[in-house]
UniProtKB/TrEMBL annotation:
The protein's name: Inorganic pyrophosphatase
Record Pfam families: Pyrophosphatase
Database matches in SUPFAM superfamilies: Inorganic pyrophosphatase
Gene: ppa
Subunit structure: Homohexamer.
One cellular component (GO) term of this entry: cytoplasm
Annotated residues for binding of Mg(2+) 1: D71, D76, D108
Length: 183
């Protein structure tokens, strides 16, 4: 894997407050059907596809820099905010939980966070603070958005902030191991 100097996966810090507050790099703003994804080699954002389903991302979606997971990607993050956050924006994100899921049988955790500088959501500190209907919407979106592609996604459960923070710390260690192998 080539590492380019401008690649945000490698060049943006995970965040000084890690694991409580991390930098989230937004790839996909909420309320869109476009599936944008970081091109790992160039560091640019590419349009992967338009969602096959008539569904819209219910929250801002992206990744945590300098992390690595079993699926070969940086750790995913869902950032709640009252606004649609533009792609490639770095957001200071307070971690409140994690949605454990399997995508095509492969573990694909989604860290749940709130935009630290958005007063409408930053009072939330744990997954239990989310409105119950929102967790149902989030679960429904991720279970259904790939159905028309004939792909299976299974949301296992939502877990608390403490579990999410452990996953973040492990993904940072996994990233360091990956970089050591590639150096």
């Amino acid at each position: 894997m080539k590492i380019f100097p401008s690649n945000p996966w490698h060049k943006v810090a995970v965040g000084a407050g890690t694991p409580n507050v991390v930098n989230g790099i937004i790839e996909i703003p909420q309320n869109t059907r476009a599936k944008y994804e970081l091109d790992k080699d160039s560091g640019l954002l590419m349009m992967d596809r338009v969602l096959y389903s008539a569904m819209y991302y219910p929250a801002n979606y992206g990744f945590i820099p300098q992390t690595y997971c079993d699926d070969g990607d940086p750790l995913d993050i869902v950032v709640l905010s009252q606004i649609d956050i533009v792609p490639m924006c770095i957001v200071s994100a307070k971690v409140i939980g994690v949605m454990r899921m399997l995508d095509g049988g492969e573990a694909d955790d989604k860290i749940i966070a709130v935009a630290e500088n958005d007063m409408s959501v930053n009072h939330m500190n744990d997954i239990a603070d989310l409105p119950p209907h929102f967790t149902k919407e989030l679960k429904n979106f991720f279970e259904d958005y790939k159905k028309l592609e004939h792909k299976t996604v299974e949301v296992e459960e939502f877990q608390d902030a403490a579990t999410a923070k452990k996953i973040i710390l492990q993904s940072i260690e996994d990233y360091k191991e990956l970089m050591a192998k590639n150096s």
